[in-house]
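Listing 4. Sequential folding, example run.
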Amino acid sequence: LEIQGFASSEGDPTFNERLSDARSEAVKRYMAERHNIPLFRMSILGFGSSRPIADNETREGREQNRRVEVRLLTNNAVSQQRQ
């Protein structure tokens, strides 16, 4: 799993970087503790406010930009060999 944390553009950019890292780390801990996913199967990334999905000029947009996305990474080479 790749766990990506994001922040809105509100506030200090350095703080937003740390906040996005902390969001990712919290989800990683949750996945390990609640769903027994081994830590070595997960990596975290913090993007701060660099990848907004909504307008940071509105409250609703900033709320949408404060998020965590979890991506399932697969090995396509293994999948293609089995076909």
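-- end of first protein; second protein begins --
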Amino acid sequence: MAITLDATLDIPGGDGKGKFVKLDKGDNIFRFLDAPVIGYLWWDDNKVCTRVKTAAEAPDNVDLNYFWHFPVWMDDEVRYMEIKQKSVLKQIKSITESDPGYKDLGEYDIKVTGDGDGKDRRYTTVPLPIKPLSDEAVQAWEADKEFWEPEKVFETGIEVTSENDDGLPF
């Protein structure tokens, strides 16, 4: 029996974007849509990621990474971001503490610029001017919000990221 494909089969091109994003080289501009889920993660020898809410829940013999996982408005769509880079997390926290106008992460975009490659990549984090979230973003988040289940990040067997050769999530 021959197995053939229809000659008119059209395979759509990918735009390289998925729902899950990582901080990349260059400018990464995003808006927090909800509070981050905070926890710790580690990778086992089989490259399986486990996430827990507290460091005390992890075995003693693993290399723990602190993370934030949260929905964002980025590239004109709702996406989900996980950040492990402590320098970026500290800079975001500092922004919220340094000026009362920037306390609410949902009121402004954040620009994180990555320079360098792999483990040598360094990030600079700055807040952009405070402005309302666009109507398009509000409507998109309203449509996606029902699917945002923060606690699922910690469920066994739920894989929201994968580790790649640069050691960054996704």
